[in-house]
Specification:
The complex is a heterotrimer of chains A (276), B (434) and C (292). Chain A has 276 residues and is an all-alpha fold. Chain A has 13 helices and no strands. Chain A has two domains: 2-59, no CATH class; 66-232, MetI-like fold, CATH 1.10.3720. Chain B has 434 residues and is an alpha/beta fold. Chain B contains 19 helices and ten strands. In chain B, the strands form two sheets. In chain B, strands 1, 2, 3, 6, 7, 8, 9 and 10 form an eight-stranded mixed β-sheet that branches. In chain B, strands 4-5 form a two-stranded antiparallel ribbon. Classes of the chains: A mainly alpha (276), B alpha/beta (434), C mainly alpha (292). Chain A: It is a multi-pass membrane protein.
């Protein structure tokens, strides 16, 4: 009897969760579906769900009009580069905060987060002028640096919380064995923190991929990532829902696929120290 | 056939030029309108002719404007050619930010540019940007619905007639709105439309001493008329409709009339996109009998930022894209109805183009706009649907946001006008006019 | 435990991150401060090279004096507050639901977190055009199907619409963190409470919610940082019309649309002050909860 109760509950849970999940996912699903319609079908009244003439025409038009592969490559380089660079800089900082805490550690952490509160629009002119001076305008390198700096506080914080969870005794044991500081970080801590580092990596790739202010304003043709690609498909003349959907699908697909494969990592790893 | 010939000529030319000129790669910022997208498709023709390569930065209008303005005012040099409008050109030209176009080649025939366009893209008589296409605005209407309503569209209708016709054509059950107009906030969207409507009612932005004029009765008349007509016969939610939203409504047969850019004529008469392509008639923009029609004047034009490192290549592209040859290239491949309109006198003298149904009305509309005397009373500024001062874009966007809030039923006409008056005067004070 | 040696090594290891962030903060901040006391109208030919005119606090008084200022602060707080409430409440419920045994848990989780991967520009464009458009939007069809007049979402219900779009984007993030926290909940404690006959609401209130408090704090902290700066969503949907002009959007209008860098910079300083007020307020709660 108890079994059938849990069985029933499981059925109800499943139904409820799937309903909510599909509802939340629906806008993305609808965008993907629309990308396979013709422009006329995209706005047909009543809307068609699946029973339309599937076409790849929109993707063809988008591919012909813009150099998708270049935008994609720039996105990959900038998002990946800024994340890796950020992690290289953040690991030692987070390590020292976690294992050699001082009175000011918490203040420094919170101060780092507060640098994210400077409104980007307010400093567009200063940064733009600086980029011109340094010759960084429309370069992947410049953008990588900016996105790294934007996300660095988040990276440091996430890593710090993972390192905090590693028991200090292990380090002491390692030290007893004569491990140097470098060995300690490289061979003892880092392997233990790999799951945490992986989650940090993922989250920051997502944040960097989706950043749409600096990536748009500091680039022209050479370094423009997918956010700029999308800016050429919003409200041109005439019907555009299907083409916009195709462009949107192309812009979010890589990161969506990455997210799907790493779902487990994200679900268990994104704690920000919330779990003690 | 033609394409082949031109390629042949191009190869020959490239050979001739080969010795002296260095092939460059230029970066062009442009807006994602249909004519520009088409131009991108013909880039190969340019490369074949000159050897220069082109990198495109195609952006939505608002993003483009923000991008190029930042770059030019900081001398960033990210672009070799910028696509700008009639509003920016004289201001930037006056600041010395653009390369004066006085060294254009003989073949280019700069005197062939329509006088209205040339005047609008010049500062102190010097041309600073070459028009890729030009436009005014006019009435586009459904002949079938007009007939059904038992009315006949005059060549130069009054606003009163438009309002009556709109009411007669409206059929809410069939989702037919008598009239579709721009209500969307933004100086180039709803702001432009209400400004020209104001012009036809005798309203003006500023008096001769740069005092805002929103406290004058003409503005209240214009705005009340607009709001009244749109609530009777306009589409639901018109407060967020801009050019593109209305275009799609009209193409779907949901509008009786649409007053908007003349370039829209080729979209609404194109049977591929429009369900009402064979039923569209044209008329001049409406008036109130005060001698001014509610039509604007605009051009999307190509300009070269001062200090460009690739001047020679940039100038070659600018000449290619705005030349008579380019128009013929497009006509050959896509038909005369799809060539970039409103830039050159010779186009309107061409019998092939005269056969296009909207050609004459477009030219008449362009000629009816007078940027020096946009409205009934004298004004201290130049520009029909805008005021050619640097502060205008910011001010007019905020004013049009107040107006859009009226269209959405969130405040009254009087409230909006009072706010518009205050914020305009405040901004003009900040800029040192008053 | 920490020796003098490891202390100085620690400082050295922290240095790159601290120095970089200090630079990233100080350079723009000092330039913003500098501009905020200057008359800088790029379109009138003002430039750094020609020297800028010192205007004292004129930009500061003008920015606050504008009729758009207080409404913009209000809009900012409304959006941040609204999104926080929706994402936290729905996030807790969703996390509870996803933690139950069910078939296809992995797939459901993927569906729920997917919006987090969508760039803000795309999500704003999709919501605006394909859902909220009063003529061709899917919601309009739904309304018509039920025989009611479609709503012009972005003009008639602009703030709620915006809050909805942004909440859709951030709900996955809240759910993820809360779900991880729930998974760490001690099952025995809950079972014991269930044995004692405590009703589920009580169990939730006295056991689950206290356990989640730390996670909720973190969700609020991180989201606030991102939400104070939202821009693309407003730029794409309303362009700041219909009362959706936030402080950062107002600054955008001053700097880029009006091309008044001095005035916009003064606005930037105000935004930093507002952000810090919010931050101090948050730190107080977080500080208690986040004994580092």
């Amino acid at each position: 009897m108890a079994r059938s109760v849990t069985q029933n509950r499981k059925i109800i849970n499943t139904a409820a969760a799937w309903a909510v999940g599909l509802l939340i996912f629906f806008p993305i699903l609808w965008t993907i579906l629309t990308s396979f319609k013709t422009e006329a079908q995209a706005i047909s009244d009543p809307p068609v769900f699946l029973a339309f003439d599937w076409t790849l025409e929109n993707y063809g038009v988008v591919m012909e009009r813009s150099n998708y592969m270049r935008f994609l490559w720039n996105s990959i380089v900038i998002a990946g580069g800024s994340t890796i660079l950020g992690i290289i800089i953040a690991v030692p900082a987070a390590w020292s905060m976690a294992f050699v805490p001082s009175k000011r550690t918490k203040d420094i952490l919170l101060w780092m987060l507060s640098t994210k509160m400077l409104p980007a629009v307010g400093v567009l002119y200063p940064i733009y002028l600086l980029f011109i001076k340094l010759g960084l305008l429309d370069t992947k390198f410049g953008l990588t640096i900016v996105l790294m700096l934007i996300n660095l506080p988040i990276i440091v914080w996430m890593l710090y919380t993972y390192f905090k969870e590693i028991p200090g005794e292990i380090l002491e044991a390692a030290r007893m064995d004569g491990a140097s500081l470098k060995d300690e970080v490289l061979y003892v801590l880092t392997p233990m923190a790999i799951p945490g580092i992986a989650s940090t990596l993922l989250l920051n790739v997502i944040l960097a991929w989706n950043e749409a202010f600096w990536t748009l304003n500091l680039t022209a043709a050479k370094a423009a990532p997918l956010t700029a690609f999308i800016a050429s498909y919003s409200s041109p003349e005439g019907l555009f829902y299907a083409k916009l959907s195709a462009a949107s699908t192309m812009a979010i697909a890589p990161i969506l696929i990455l997210g799907w494969f790493s779902q487990k990592q994200l679900v268990s790893g994104l704690t920000f120290g919330a779990v003690k | 056939m033609y394409l082949k010939a031109s390629m042949g000529a191009a190869t020959a030319m490239a050979l001739v030029m080969g010795s002296g000129a260095i092939a460059d790669t230029i970066t062009i910022a442009t807006v994602n309108n249909g004519d520009m997208i088409r131009m991108q498709g013909y880039t190969d023709d340019f490369t074949a002719k000159t050897g220069h390569e082109v990198e495109w930065v195609t952006l939505e209008e608002n993003v483009l404007r923000q991008r190029v303005t930042t770059d030019i005012s900081t001398k960033g040099g990210a672009f070799d050619i910028m696509t700008i409008g009639m509003y920016e050109t004289p201001i930037w030209g006056a600041n010395g930010w653009l390369v004066p176009l006085d060294g254009l080649s003989e073949d280019y025939d700069v005197d062939d540019i329509l006088p209205a366009m040339r005047a609008g893209l010049s500062h102190d008589g010097t041309l600073y940007a070459a028009p890729f296409y030009g436009e005014s605005s006019m009435v586009m209407y459904r002949k079938d619905l007009m007939e059904k309503a038992g009315l006949e569209m005059p060549e130069a209708p009054t606003w009163e007639f438009i309002r009556e016709a709109a009411a007669a054509m409206t059929d809410r059950d069939a989702e037919i709105n008598g009239i579709c107009l721009r209500g969307k906030a933004g100086w180039g969207e709803g702001g432009a439309f209400i400004t020209v409507t104001g012009n036809s009612f005798g309203a003006r932005w500023f008096d001769e001493d740069w005092n805002a004029q929103f406290d004058q009765p003409e503005w209240a008349d214009a705005l009340n008329f607009f709001v009244g007509m749109m609530s009777e016969s306009g589409p639901p939610g018109y407060a967020t409709n801009g050019f593109n939203e209305n275009l799609s409504l009209f193409q779907q047969g949901k509008c009786g009339m649409w007053i908007d850019a003349t370039v829209a004529a080729s979209f609404v008469t194109n049977p591929d996109d429009s369900t009402v392509a064979d039923q569209v008639g044209f008329a001049l923009a409406p008036n109130t009998g005060l001698g001014k029609n509610a039509n604007w004047l605009w051009a999307w034009a190509l300009a070269i930022p001062a200090g460009s490192q690739k001047l020679e290549a940039a100038q070659a592209f600018l000449e290619w894209a705005t030349s008579k040859d380019y128009i013929e290239l497009v006509a050959e491949n896509e038909g005369w109805a799809n060539v970039p309109p409103g830039a050159r006198t010779s186009l309107y003298a061409n019998p092939d183009y005269q056969a296009v149904p909207f050609a004459k009305m477009t030219l008449d509309s362009i000629n009816a706009a007078d940027p020096q005397n946009p409205t009934v009373k004298p004004v201290p500024y130049v520009g029909v649907q805008f005021v050619a001062i640097p502060e205008f874009a910011g001010i007019a966007t905020e004013v049009s946001q107040e107006f859009s809030a009226v269209y959405a039923g969130q405040q009254s006409v009087d409230e909006a006008l009072a706010k518009a008056q205050a914020l305009t005067n405040d901004a003009m004070e900040a800029a040192g006019y008053r | 435990m920490a020796t003098q040696h490891s202390r100085s090594a620690a400082r050295l290891m922290m240095a790159p991150a601290v120095v970089l962030l200090l630079g990233w903060m100080l350079i723009p901040l000092s330039m913003t401060l500098f501009f905020s006391f200057k008359k800088y109208l790029p379109l009138r030919g003002d430039s750094m090279a020609n020297g800028l005119e010192w205007v004292g606090f004129a930009n500061y008084t003008r920015f606050v004096g504008s009729s758009a200022f207080w409404p913009s602060v209000q809009a900012t707080l409304t959006i941040v507050g609204g999104v926080l409430i929706i994402t936290v409440v729905l996030g807790v419920l969703l996390a509870l639901l996803l933690n139950q045994p069910m078939w296809g848990q992995g797939v459901v989780r993927i569906l729920v977190i997917a919006p987090f991967f969508v760039m803000p520009t795309v999500s704003a464009l999709v919501w605006k055009n394909m859902f909220m458009d009063p003529t061709n939007g899917l919601l309009a069809y739904l309304w018509k199907f039920f025989g009611t007049e479609p709503i012009a979402w972005l003009s008639q219900a602009s703030l709620p619409s915006l809050i909805m779009i942004v909440s859709w984007q951030w709900l996955p993030f809240a759910t993820l963190i809360l779900l991880t926290a729930i998974q760490s909940l001690d099952g025995e404690q809950l079972e014991a409470a269930e044995m004692d006959g405590a009703p589920s609401i009580k169990r939730f209130w006295f056991i689950v919610l206290p356990h989640l408090s730390r996670a909720i704090t973190i969700v609020i902290l991180i989201q606030t940082i991102f939400l104070l700066a939202i821009f693309a969503e407003i730029f794409v949907t309303t362009g700041g019309a219909f009362g959706t002009k936030t402080l950062s959007y107002l600054i955008f209008q001053r700097v880029l649309e009006s091309q008044n860098v001095g005035l916009g910079s003064a606005g930037g300083v105000y935004a930093i002050i507002l952000a810090n007020i919010v931050a101090i307020f948050l730190m107080r709660i977080v500080g208690k909860n986040l004994d580092a």
